Queue: 2 jobs
Job 1
Amino acid sequence: MLYKNRIRSQAEYEAARLASIENPEAFWAEVASNLHWQKPWDKVLDWSFDPYEVKWFSGGKLNISENCLDRHLADRGDKTAIIFEPNDPKDLARRITYRELYFEVCKFANVLKRNGVRKGDRVCLYMPMIPALAVATLACARIGAIHSVVFAGFSANSMADRINDAACSVVITADGMSRGPKQIPLKRVVDEALDNCSTVNRVIVYNHLNWMPEMVSGRDVWWHEELQHVDSECPAEPMDAEDMLFILYTSGSTGKPKGVVHTCGGYATYVDYSFRNVFQIEENDIYWCTADIGWITGHSYLLYGPLMSGISSVMFEGIPTYPDPGRFWSVIDKHGVTVFYTAPTAIRSLMAAGIDHVLAFNLHSLRVLGSVGEPINEEAWHWYYLHVGKERCPVVDTWWQTETGGIMISAMAGVTASKPAHAGQPLPGIQPVLLNQEGQEIEGNDQEGYLAVKFPWPSMIRTTYGDHERCYQTYFSAYKNYYFTGDGARRDENGLYRIIGRVDDVINVSGHRFGTAEIENAINQNKHVIESAVVGYPHDIKGQGIYAFVICDKMPDNATQLREDIYETVSSEIGRIAKPDKIQFVTGLPKTRSGKIMRRILRKVAENELGSLGDTSTLLDPLIVDEIVAGKL
Ligand code: WTA
């Protein structure tokens, strides 16, 4: 594959990195020219971090769906774009060529138009991991509608909040979905959410499981019926590079998730560049990213990145442990997967299931392994490298965030230095720094600090939807003139970065981000709860677990029952994925005299570091700490 900006050696990497720092505009202009632009840009970059405003490729026009589809029709029309692997291995896998995907997207784009969707409108997608989700997402992009994909594990309440925040006019969903042995009635969840949303006037329902749910007349239509009324021609809307492409909600330190906004030109440019280089993609790769499209990894490296590069990629509906913990490995052998990208939590859970499940497969097609979403511990790294990669495949530990749009710090597979449990060096064009408490840059190697970025890159967050001040406050106010990541990191003696974890009130559970305040708000909705405090603690499989300290109207007689009740509340407020792992009932919380909860103490208790609770004498009620320690779970 001819690609101008493909880095093939450490020396080329060093050269690209230098060039990107010396003349960022020239560097990114060259990278962006690998995409198909309907009209060239006037200016590569305009930026300020204070106040925050960044514009990449101003005046340029492109459409990412054209770059994913139309561009490949001549040479790759009959090539497989998506290999769909269903939840149940007894069901047939499905291959969709680039040409078929192109037609499906164009037709569904016309369905959207027929249902009143126009450029700039927000569309919420709440769907299973099936090709229709890829089609719907690309169809939005094709007509310039802004997609907001809500992970199908979120509850009706979470969905309603996201729909209302973005004032979506249309929801796309399916009758239901299968996840392992379970089936979930998605349409019913949408109906419940829409009781609290006034902006939605149309629900488009994909018939996946033949459940025939109740349809609300005048509001709900069937996907397949709508297709009868449209043709398969739909020109791609010319999008300004800075027009919004999508909104994706993510949690931060505050109670309310925020809508991270990405725009068309910079996002496409950076995702394409980082995808090809990090995984060292080749024309015949069979690539598999196990993330759900409901998260940023699914957006950038399951959908857009692989399709822009014209390779074949696997889309998996199910879960790693169904029907047994050998499923990942069996799918790799079945489809001849060459590049495999998954999360440490999945690796750890499959590790725990026993080595026999892996040894039953030969995995000889694999060439590159990737990890994303949370720090990968050395044990899991070695297991992955040894038993999955058979010591042949480089492991890329990719650090990035919903807000960064694409991979920021990572080795390039087999090309640049890689070290267990270290993300490695920044990609060319990315300028990370470590800051101390005062916000000064820490120079040199063998250092630890707050991870920040000092120069813009094309796929960085543009705003938080509907509230630009919040974007500035969250990312650019803690340290003036830096983008602050919320992570702590260490730079080793050779300049390789190791991500230590969040330094804010964000917990990363199985690679899913939650704000402690967000979970507390949910718990507090339970009628028996007076107050709660949530902290993260190390968890063998999930990376971090959720530990909740809860004050109730009275200490419960039946703690098990009340716990179940609180799980229910959290499931309905946020979703099953945010269920606390431990709930300890307490009569009080350690607070300062000004009423602030001393989370540091709670964290120590949850981490079982009882010897280092620190000075508790300044607390309003120092005795409460003894009670909490005594009742520790
Ligand atoms: C964490 C996921 C260590 C980090 C792409 C970050 C990681 C947060 C890694 C973003 C990694 C992600 N090593 N930690 N390779 N990748 N993280 O927005 O704390 O869901 O801030 O994006 O996950 O999570 P998000």
Job 2
Amino acid sequence: MRTPTPSVYIRGLGAYAPERRLTNEEIARHVDTTDEWIRTRSGIGERRIAAPGENPSDMAVKAAEIAIARAGLTKEDIDLVICATMTPDMVIPSTACLVAAKLGLKEVPAFDVGAACSGFIYMLQVGHHMLRAGDYRNVLIVGTEKLSSFVNWQDRNTCVLFGDAAGAAVLSKCDEPYVGILGNVLGSDGSNPELLYCPAGGAARPATPETVANSEHFIRMNGKEVFKLATRVMAASCEKVLAKCGVSLDQVTCVVPHQANARIIETVAKQLNVSMDRIPINLDRYGNTSAASIPLVLEEAYREGRFKHGDYVLLVAFGAGLTWGATLIKWHDAR
Ligand code: ACO
């Protein structure tokens, strides 16, 4: 398959995680759980927690500055900012507007994408098409999450799983054909939102003393059902995008999945018949950081030399919504 030019590629990656490490043992001092349970069921050993007053937009700016510098650009070269987050600084305005302002970008368009853990895959698709349409040169996409603010620290079903972080990429155009983002598939199913949701705080159930007393502003999840759906849609999304691009899984150097649960990743690896050494994992150190998870692990894998110029890299995610998606990239380093 030949993609028409211009190609759109990831020109720079950046990641940021707060310093504070919260270990499983610390959580086990406050809720009825154990390090052993958390590691066996999820693969998570610790997660990062944002400092008081450190907001998603602040973490996003840190990741973005690294991505822009690595792209060999300056902030002034960015002409569109997109953020993906399910834990925005506030409901209004968008986190992207706050990030653009904190970066000192004047009057650039900025908006948020709401696709939970699939946010980075959704942003790749949106950024890709906006660049191809011709109006933009360099698009900054940032997944940023402060899940520690939306987790009920009394609920052992959820509080052990999530962490805070941000991951960013600069998308740019280039004239070389068939490089960068080769294909994307996205999907959603909103017919059962209670699988993973915050019951209150939206227009359907605004905040009242009762919603606060009932902890309805925190994340609730049916872990078992989410697990089943995740394993069903992730493998199918990978197969679909590979077929669309005419690339076989054997040609792919790295499969980079959303870091929610090691058992989900292992199940998908089995379904696809991909060995685990082709799958970077960092959820043991960061937990599930939702929209930040893929750029966080992708940046680490790139830095460690797990893929290079010319390699095929397959990204795949699922999240609340439910949403899901996969992107096939032929990695391109501008020289
Ligand atoms: N410590 C000890 N026991 C626990 C804990 C805990 N932290 N959490 C739950 N349990 C208990 C349950 O209460 C249950 O007890 P019971 O049998 O007496 O009722 C038992 O452990 C088994 O619970 P299950 O839910 O069956 O455990 P499971 O093996 O399914 O693992 C988990 C739970 C880790 C949540 C798993 O289902 C999972 O990872 N699901 C997917 C979640 C996910 O990926 N969410 C993110 C989506 S992405 C996004 O958009 C944010």
